[in-house]
Each structure stands twice: as C-alpha cells, then as structure tokens.
C-alpha cells in the first residue's frame, strides 16, 4: 500500500509523523535527507515505540570515558528503553562483539546496503533479541510516501 | 494462615463480570501545588518560604532512562505531571489493560523528614488528594494511607482518621526508614494498621542511605539494590520479633522483586536454630513467619533466561498464594499485564497472581465495577 | 580426593604476637591506649565460634591432620577488620599481620597459602603493602572486608586491583568489616542473626559495584572470591541485574557484556556458609539456576560452623564437577599444584 504522508516541504528534518495504515500504527521519521518507517509497537511489551527519544550511540573505551557517537538513528521505546535501529529495526542495548576494544567514530547514515550489517547500525554491537517492523519511505514528486 | 492461594468465598453470578486483574502498585502523584491546597495556612507558608528540606532521591541517583517515567505518561496539561491526571491514568492503565482494581501508592510523603507536624499535614494532604481526585473519580481506584512514619503517634492518628473509609486498603510506608523496620519504634503503626484490618505496604524508597557497602555510584546499582534493601528489612522484621508481637500483621513488600526470597528464607532458617539465645522472642522458624505474614508485589518481576527458573523460586519460597500483580504504572520499567508474566507460570498461578491473591488480601469485591 | 580449603582462619591471640612486627612507637601506642584484639568478637561470638588458630601448632592439629587430604589451605586473617580510623595505625597493623602470617604460618608448611591484608582507610597504603609483600608467591590474594565506606568497585579503590594484578594476585571479599558502621542498608541491627545474615545482601551490593564500575573491563584477569557470604542468593540477583541493565546501559556504557556474564567469569564463591535446603529436588533446581561447579570453591571456614548443607549439594554433582569445586577451580585461580 502506498500512503502519502505529507508534502516534503512540510516535513523538516528531525520531525516525525505517526499514522494509521490498515489497522497498524506506523511512525515516519526524517533524519537529514533520509526517511524511515517503523512500526509504532515495541516488540518487547507493545509500547508506543514511535513516541520515544531518538538517541545516538553511547560508547566508552574505558570506565568513565563515555561519549556519544554522531548519528541519532536509534529510537528508544518510551517504556522500557529498548533501542532500535531506525533503518533495520534491529534492537541493540549495549553489548559489544567480543574482542572489540574501541569504536570507529562518525557513523554514516544511509539506506540498506543489502548486507548482513545494515548501514547506520554500529557494526560492532551485538544485536538484541527484538526486531521492530520497518517500512520503506521515499520521496516521490515532492511528497513523502510510505510503503506499508 | 498458610501461604497457599486463598479465594474469596462469594460466587459471581455473571462470569463476564468477574474480576480478573488487580494492579497492586500504581503511582498517582500530586504536585506540590496540589498538596499545598490541603495544608493549613501556616504549613503552606512554611512550604513557600523554606520548601521541602529533604533532597529527593532522584537528586542522588538520577533515573538514567526517561527520568524514571514512561515518556508518554506526561499529561501535557498545564500544572500536571506524570501520575497527577486521573483521566490519563484511567486511559493508559485502567481502560487500556482492563484493570478491575488499581491500588494507588502515592509516594509524595515517603522521603518527608520535615518538621513532624508538617510531615503529618503533608501526608494527610496526600490522603485528602487521593480521596478527592482519584478515589472519587473512578470506583476502580483504591488508596493506601500515607503516614508520617518517623513520628508514630502522628501516624497512628492519621490511620485512625482514615480507617472508616474502606477505599483505603492498606497503610503505606517506605522500605527505607531512619531505623530498621523491625524496631519497636514503628510497632504502633503496625498495630494500628492491624487493628483496622489493613496490611502495611512497604514501598521501595524513602530515607535512602546505603550503609553496609557504602553509597553506590550509579542508578543501576541503586535500582538493583532495591531488592537488597528489602532483604535487609525483611530480616529486621523477622529478627525483631514483629510477627510474634503482632500476630495479625500482614505486610506487602512492594516494588522490590520476588526471586530473592527463597535464598533469604534458607539463610534465616539455617541461622535461627543454632543461635536461639540471640533472639529468644522468635518461637518459630523464620520461614514460618514469612509464610504467614508476608506478601510481595511482582513488579519488577525478575526475568531469567529460562522462565522455568522463576517458577522454581516461587515454589521454593512458597509464594503462590502471596504474589500480587503490579504494573508500577507509570515508571519506566513498568510491567505490562499482558506480557510481563511468563507462560511458564501456568494458568492457575497466573490467575492467583493477577487477581485471586489480591482479592483475598485486600478483601475486594469479586464483581467488577460497572 | 585432593582438596584445597579456600577459607581457613588464623589470628594472633593478642597484640603481643604482633609486637615483633611493630615499631617501638606503635607498641607504646597500643600499650598506652590499652588496645586489645577482640578477635572480631562481634562477628564470631563465643556462642557460634571457637577462637581461630593462633599458632602453627594449633592450625596443624585443628586443620592439617584429619580426614580431608588438604593439598593446600588458604589462610585468612581478619584481625585487621577491626575499627581503625587512624590510617597510620591501620597500615602498621596490616603490615604486622602479614609479617606474622608469613613467619608463624607460611614459612612452616608448604601447603599453606594466604591472603594479604591491607589498610582499608587509605588506597595508597593498601597499594604500598601489596608492593611490599605481594611478590611473595605464598600470598595469593588481597583480602578486603565485605563492608566498606564506599563500594569496592569505586574508582578510588581501583589502584588496589592494579597493584594486585601486577603481581598475579586475586582479590578476596570476606564477611564482616567495621563494627562501628551500621551494617545494613537500613540502619543499626539489634540481633546477631541480622548481622550474620546481613553479610549476604552486602556482598550482593559489592558484586553490583565491581561490575557496574567496569572493574573487569579495566582488569580482565582479575577474579574476586567472595568468602563466607553464601552463594544461594546469586542467580536471582543476576536476573535482576541483567534486566535493569538492559534499560539503563547508557549509564555504564563501558560494559560490553551483560552483567551476569562478567559475574560468571570473574566471581567465585566459597562454600561456607551454604545455607541450602535439604530436599534434593530444590538442590537440583539450584544447580540448574547457577553454574555451581564452575563458581564454587570449597572452604571449611574453620573454626566457624555454619551447618553442613553443602554435602547435600556435593552429592548431586558428578565426580568431575565435585573435583572442580574441591580442587580445580581454586588450583586454577591461585595457580597451585603446578
């Protein structure tokens, strides 16, 4: 189903819309020039995922040495704080792949590269157990269009 | 009194109207301005001029996720905060999850170490606010009697003031107090609660001072530590002979988890027998006292990788008749009634936890409110 | 079966035994102030414990001869856990105790190993003492009381772990600590029962601290041996710890794994007290809930008596797993028997 969400010019970066499509509540986000669609339902306990905060990754090479990385591409469920990559819907909550000592800086946003690790997800994080449903969103003739 | 499931005797004529869900820990929260409206002019002036003296625990241990509350629980109405708008609570909790009864625990007076007479007025204001704004708003709400617990005479007076209103189903105290909960200081409060047929609910929080291992650095440690504090307090209540002194006392350990109970019971029993001269007032095994006098709310229910293990600890601690379901709405780590209890518990135990145990403990009607 | 006993107590009978290891100044201080060693009387009252062996002869007759074939014994002297706020005295007493343990015990029997004790009121002094005696291979760990002013994982305490690891030492957290401090998270106690059981929730808080502060990220080789604080409480604590961390991991972003994984890898627990129920079904459940064979290390905790529920648990283990508890885990941890 193609759903016109809004005219492009009235949907600035940093904003989101939550719309009902065929009985499902879906959130559409704009981050820079990119658009994302994700189900407004956290797989954990059903919370309204799309009401949550957008957060950049928090990394630390050593105790106390904490910093935020560049891109706010994770949505944190407003209930228990489960965090999901906007692009892939994959949950992450802090675990790092073994043997990793440090992180790269400056993640680049983007669409799926069709590989196992989707761009925008920090490559070295261990995925969490939940995956939220995601949807394609693109721009057609100056309109933001959701494919649900 | 055994720890097995007790059911209410009456039968409901229409099964569609039978109670199925009792939420035993819900946080309505009044703002200072809302409570000030119930104060005497002198107390109101003192509040305006000097404020509340005790630092809030959130200043010591900031709640690292969502300021501690579900993001969507802020009403967006001017002058309101999370938990202060009964309409939102009704919408997000009662109606959303089909809750039949919700027991309110209003924590505004828990960390109150102000002047005794101010503390008494403040807690009385909490109870007045509950009555006017919540208990009268929706018949599904039940209240708990907030008391100035560090001043037992004043606390007893407040209990006696509210006892006639059956919508108050318990007396509320914090889990962290100036002295340990087993100390004789607090016995008059327990006696007054028992005399008017109410359990005492001890809710995580209060005067929080982490002795023993010192002050933790992080909210994470502090939060997990809520279960540790309650282990200590339960030990105090048992060792202090509270249940010998007040045979009718029932206590509800609230918002501290449940799975730690079994190991503590084993330790208390193992220590009790060889050291009996140390605690001559204890006539029976500690676990027997716990069996007869202690209930637990479920939230935050522990989540072992293997849900069977949770069932183990519930059986080990003989808790099937003693667990009371709680969402802890609107805290960030609230448990959804639909999903928080694992299927591994089985339908009978789930039913006991979701409503039967609470119906028995709080003597609630078996029929839903219309 | 070869056995390592990971917690056997010894203690000087009085300050007289420590005098050879103290300066004139401190001997006079002790004499003038009338300070006596209480043997931690509040922790080990007559009703529950005999005095700890105060000489090698006593240790030998009480522990080293007997049915169990002890290949090694780890000695813990908790005398220094008494209330010393004078940091210079605390440091002097810790050194004297270590010297006494070495001369009176370690030097006389190849089977003996020991924890070294340190000042608990000055990190610098604790590090200095580890540097002074920690190279001696007979000292295998640094002993800390489970009760502390700040949780042991706190950054101000971490130089202790650095110094320990530089010398291949582990860390032992042992029951008790300052008598003058309210021993619980809620205030002063009135019964021994509360104090005795109270070591367990305090040990739990210390576990939280070590993990949350990232101590094991900083010191990946460090192991912490929790002694005389029980262990049956561990599994439910880890369930809670993992669950809460999932929500607030951003507060401690240096943790790369779930808290329970750090605990499984870095903590060990001695077996006295065990405080276990007697029915085999429950014991079997407990074994399912925790990796007992991997995490437990046998200890008699002589001369303290806690009941013998441990034997019921051991009966449920395979021979191989029993071997791990009685010998292998400790042998690997302390590098013994090579």
Explain what you see.
The complex is a heterotrimer of chains A (148), B (370) and C (338). Chain A has strands spanning 2-7, 16-21, 24-31, 34-39, 53-55, 58-60, 66-68, 74-76, 83-85, 90-96, 125-131, 134-140, 143-147. With 148 residues, chain A is mainly beta. Chain A has a single domain, classed as Rieske Iron-sulfur Protein (3-layer Sandwich). In chain A, the strands form three sheets. A six-stranded antiparallel β-sheet of chain A has the order 1-13-12-4-3-2, with no helix packed on it. Chain A has a five-stranded antiparallel β-sheet with strand order 5-8-9-10-11, with no helix packed on it. Chain A has a two-stranded antiparallel ribbon with strand order 6-7. In chain A, β3 (24-31) and β4 (34-39) form a beta hairpin. In chain A, 36% of the residues are buried. With 370 residues, chain B is α/β, with parallel strands linked by helices. Chain B is built from 13 helices and eight strands. In chain B, α5 packs parallel to α6 and α6 runs parallel beside α7 (187-195). Chain B is globular. In chain B, 57% of the residues are buried. In chain C, strands 1-2-3-4-5-6-7-8 form an eight-stranded parallel β-sheet, sandwiched between helices. The mean pLDDT of chain C is 93. In chain C, α4 links the parallel β2 and β3. Chain C has 338 residues and is an alpha/beta fold. Helices cover 43% and strands 12% of the residues of chain C. Chain C has 14 helices and eight strands. The two termini of chain C are 17 Å apart. Chains B and C meet through α8, α10 and α12 of B and α7, α9 and α11 of C.
Please specify the SSE layout and strand pairing.
The complex is a heterotrimer of chains A (148), B (370) and C (338).
Chain A: E1 2-7, E2 16-21, E3 24-31, E4 34-39, E5 53-55, E6 58-60, E7 66-68, E8 74-76, E9 83-85, E10 90-96, E11 125-131, E12 134-140, E13 143-147
Antiparallel strand pairs in A: 1-13, 2-3, 3-4, 4-12, 5-8, 6-7, 8-9, 9-10, 10-11, 12-13
Chain B: E1 22-26, H1 32-36, H2 41-50, H3 57-60, H4 86-97, E2 101-104, H5 116-135, E3 141-146, H6 152-162, E4 168-176, H7 187-195, E5 200-206, H8 219-239, H9 242-245, E6 251-254, H10 261-272, H11 286-293, E7 294-297, H12 307-316, E8 323-324, H13 347-362
Parallel strand pairs in B: 1-2, 2-3, 3-4, 4-5, 5-6, 6-7, 7-8
Helix pairs in contact in B: 5-6, 6-7
Chain C: E1 3-9, H1 15-18, H2 24-33, H3 56-64, E2 70-76, H4 87-105, E3 112-117, H5 123-133, E4 139-145, H6 158-166, E5 170-174, H7 192-212, H8 215-218, E6 224-227, H9 234-248, H10 259-266, E7 267-270, H11 280-289, H12 292-295, E8 296-297, H13 310-316, H14 319-334
Helix pairs in contact in C: 4-5, 5-6
């Amino acid at each position: 189903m193609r759903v016109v969400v809004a005219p492009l010019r009235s949907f600035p970066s940093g904003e989101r819309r939550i719309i009902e499509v065929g009985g499902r509540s879906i959130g559409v986000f704009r981050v820079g020039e990119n658009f994302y669609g994700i189900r407004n339902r956290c797989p954990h306990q059903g919370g309204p995922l799309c009401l949550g905060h957008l957060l950049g990754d928090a990394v630390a090479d050593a105790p106390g040495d904490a910093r935020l990385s560049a891109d706010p591409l994770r949505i944190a469920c407003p209930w228990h704080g489960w965090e999901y990559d906007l692009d892939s819907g994959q949950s992450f909550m802090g675990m790092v792949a073994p043997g990793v000592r440090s992180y790269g800086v400056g993640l680049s946003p983007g669409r799926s590269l069709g590989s196992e690790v989707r761009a925008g997800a920090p490559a070295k994080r261990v995925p969490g157990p939940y995956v939220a449903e995601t949807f394609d969103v693109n721009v057609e003739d100056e309109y933001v269009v959701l494919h649900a | 009194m055994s720890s097995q499931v007790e059911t209410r005797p009456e039968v409901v004529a229409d099964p569609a109207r039978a109670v199925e869900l009792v939420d035993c820990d819900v946080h309505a929260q009044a703002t200072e301005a809302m409570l000030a409206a119930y104060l005497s002019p002198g107390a109101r002036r003192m509040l305006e001029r000097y404020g509340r003296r005790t630092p809030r625990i959130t200043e010591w241990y900031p709640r690292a996720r969502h300021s501690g509350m579900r993001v969507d629980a802020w009403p967006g109405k001017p002058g309101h905060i999370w938990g202060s708008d009964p309409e939102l609570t009704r919408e997000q909790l009662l109606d959303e999850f089909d809750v039949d009864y919700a027991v309110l625990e209003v924590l505004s007076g828990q960390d109150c170490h102000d002047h005794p007479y101010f503390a008494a007025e403040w807690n009385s204001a909490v109870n007045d606010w509950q009555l006017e704004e919540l208990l009268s708003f929706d018949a599904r709400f039940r209240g708990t009697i907030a008391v100035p617990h560090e001043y037992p005479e004043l606390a007893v007076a407040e209990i006696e003031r509210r006892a006639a209103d059956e919508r108050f189903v318990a007396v509320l105290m914090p889990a962290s107090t100036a002295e340990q909960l087993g100390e004789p200081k607090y016995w008059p409060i327990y006696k007054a609660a028992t005399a008017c047929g109410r359990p005492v609910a001890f809710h995580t929080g209060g005067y929080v001072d982490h002795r023993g291992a010192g002050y933790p650095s992080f909210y994470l440690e502090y939060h997990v530590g809520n279960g540790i504090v309650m282990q200590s307090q339960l030990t105090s209540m048992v060792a202090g002979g509270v249940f010998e002194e007040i045979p009718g006392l029932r206590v509800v350990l609230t918002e501290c988890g449940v799975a730690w109970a079994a190991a503590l019971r084993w330790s208390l029993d193992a220590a009790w027998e060889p050291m009996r001269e140390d605690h001559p007032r204890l006539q029976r095994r500690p676990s027997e006292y716990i069996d007869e006098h202690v209930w637990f709310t479920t939230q935050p229910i522990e989540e072992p990788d293997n849900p069977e293990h949770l069932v183990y600890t519930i059986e080990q601690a003989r808790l099937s008749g003693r667990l009371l379901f709680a969402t802890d709405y609107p805290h960030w780590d609230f448990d959804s009634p639909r999903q928080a209890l694992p299927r591994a518990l089985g339908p009978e135990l789930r039913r006991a936890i979701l409503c039967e145990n609470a119906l028995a403990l709080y003597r609630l009607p078996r029929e839903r409110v219309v | 079966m070869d056995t390592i006993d990971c917690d056997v107590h010894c203690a000087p009978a009085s300050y007289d035994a420590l005098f050879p290891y103290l300066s004139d100044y401190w001997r006079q201080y002790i004499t003038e102030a009338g300070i006596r060693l209480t043997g931690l009387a509040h922790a080990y009252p007559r009703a529950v414990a005999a005095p700890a062996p105060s000489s090698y002869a006593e240790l030998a007759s009480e522990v080293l001869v007997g049915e169990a074939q002890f290949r090694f014994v780890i000695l813990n002297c908790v005398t220094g856990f008494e209330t010393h706020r004078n940091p210079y005295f605390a440091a002097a007493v810790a050194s004297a105790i270590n010297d006494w343990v070495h001369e009176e015990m370690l030097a006389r029997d190849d089977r003996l190993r020991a924890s070294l004790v340190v000042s608990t009121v000055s990190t610098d002094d604790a590090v200095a003492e580890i540097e002074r005696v920690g190279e001696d291979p007979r000292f295998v760990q640094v002993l800390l009381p489970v009760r502390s002013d700040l949780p042991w994982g706190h950054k101000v305490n971490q130089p202790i772990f650095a110094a320990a690891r530089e010398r291949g030492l582990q860390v032992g957290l042992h029951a008790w600590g300052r008598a003058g401090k309210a021993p619980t998270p809620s205030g002063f106690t009135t019964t021994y029962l509360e104090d005795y059981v109270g070591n367990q929730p305090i040990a739990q808080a210390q576990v939280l601290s070590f993990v949350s502060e990232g101590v094991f990220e900083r010191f990946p080789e460090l192991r912490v041996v929790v002694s005389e604080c029980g262990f049956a409480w561990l599994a439910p604590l880890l369930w809670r710890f993992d669950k809460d961390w999932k929500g607030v991991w951003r507060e401690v972003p240096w943790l790369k794994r779930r808290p329970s994984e750090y605990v499984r890898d870095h903590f060990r627990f001695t077996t006295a007290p065990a405080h276990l129920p007697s029915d085999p079904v429950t014991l079997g459940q407990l074994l399912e809930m925790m990796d007992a064979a991997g995490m437990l290390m046998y200890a008699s905790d002589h001369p303290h008596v806690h009941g013998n529920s441990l034997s019921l648990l051991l009966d449920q283990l395979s021979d191989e797993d029993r071997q791990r508890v009685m010998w292998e885990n400790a042998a690997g941890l302390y590098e013994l028997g090579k």
